[in-house]
Amino acid sequence: MDILWGLIVIAAIYLWILFMDRFFKSCSHYGYIQFLKGTGLEIRFFQFSWTTTAFNKLLLKWGSNYTKFQNLWFNCGLCASLILLPISIYLLLVAFFQNFSTSAISEENIIQPVIPGVNLPASEIGYYSLTLLISSVLHELGHALASVQEDVNVINVGANFIFILPVAYVNINSDKLFSLNPWKRLKILCAGVWHNLLIAVFAYLLYTSLPSAFSLFFNFGSGIVASQIHEKSPLAGNRGLNVGDIILKINDCEIQDETMWYKCLSTLKTNKPAFCIEGDVIHNLDESVHLKHLENGVVSCCHSDNKGKLCFEYLDSKDSILELPPYACLPGRTVIEVSTNFCTSDPHFCPKDTFCFRPVLTNNTNLYKIKRTGKPDVIFIGPASDFLRTVTVSSYVPKYSFLGTAIPDMTTKFLGYLSIFSMGLAIVNILPCLFMDGQHITNTIFHIIFSKHLRTTHIKGISAVVTASFTFLLVIHCTIVIWSKLN
């Protein structure tokens, strides 16, 4: 809700600035108009644009230094981009046909649009905005430096702020660009994709080195720590989770880091746990009544007044003699706490003198036994979404009590976003689609291949058909993914 109110406030500020902009322009306010011209600002509906020539000399200086190295640098970028082009096309085709396949290659599409609040947590939109700014600035820097290398002048640079998403851009002399030798033109066009690839690789290498970098103050790979718990979380309380708890296991799924935490929750979401319970415990604590079938399709063997009791189903091993009643009403917390083994997997195996029982639960709830360091286990019955919505965990377990997990968590999240989004921008930007670098790259490649066999108009026609086709595929794919996410 705080994020929603923040976006509403930002929208209100945009509308107020837009109103004042129109007001001053309608009054021909000289000082305001000169201010806009001097700063290069332009105000539109939910958008700010800024252009400047202040960096032209600096770009010219950078592009003119170490010419041999930069020539080799951007030639490597050209080769890497040409390798990435067919890979990106293949990924788009796989992602597109994945939408119509009954047996999907993976649970998530290979290429999918980012939707804040749907597949991107609204609380992390700041990371997205920052990584988008860095990726686009370095992308455009690649185009600018490669242009200077080939003596194509930079007209200006700037940035667009579309609501809260910043995107950098650079304007170069297009007439001179398209008069270049096709290979030199390709080197300039591919420079942005090349820089995005390097950002992704560099960020990923830093990401993988973080456990070692923070090892002096944090343990990594031996459990996770609960860093934040919402005050109204059903998991909080005297017998629940507390901030600082080190979690080692959830049911029979061991947890080494945050990734395993979410993987375990996803796996256990529909996988009902079963416990090995001693026969004497069953006989002594069983308070089952006549079996009832409830409206939701679940059976009940406990009296409605028996609070804290759960109905357990006996899972006998295959071809074995049924040694105990098929259902037993037992005190859930007590029998689960004394149980030392899980028998969830089939065949249900338990040590001698113990028997496999599974709690009978509704489809949207599950039972979780959370093993902690130095504290009793937490027993929780509810949906997996309660964990995801109200509990924040960290892979970095502090070695000292005064340390928090904010710095390693923020650094890890930022580098993860930077690596993924930079690679995503490289893959999408190289595609032969409208408004992408791939549109001009593909056109230039066709000129190199077909210039001796076809007229220029025919090459442009082929390029236009290819570009329109892949643009159509990308738009349809994104529309399907967005629709499926919102429904």
Structure description:
The chain is an alpha+beta fold. It has 14 helices and 16 strands. Strands 5, 6, 7, 14, 15 and 16 form a six-stranded antiparallel beta sheet that branches. The protein has a four-stranded antiparallel beta sheet with strand order 1-2-3-4. A hairpin with a 2-residue loop joins strand 3 (154-162) and strand 4 (165-172). Helix 3 (56-64) packs across helix 5, helix 4 (67-98) crosses helix 14 and helix 5 packs across helix 12 (406-429). The longest helix is centred in the N-terminal third of the chain and has 32 residues, at 67-98. The two termini are 21 Å apart. The mean pLDDT is 87.
Task: Please give the number of β-strands.
Answer: 16
Distance between the termini: 21 Å
Query: Kindly state the mean pLDDT as a whole number?
Result: 87
- Any idea what the radius of gyration is? 30 Å
Order of helices and strands: HHEEHHHEEHHEEEHEHEEEEHEEEHEHHH
Please estimate the helix content.
40-55%
Helix/sheet category: alpha+beta
| Main sheet: strands, sense, barrel | 6 strands, antiparallel
The proportion of residues in beta strands is 15-25%
Spatial shape: elongated
Residue runs with pLDDT of under 50 for 5 or more positions: none
The number of helical segments is 14
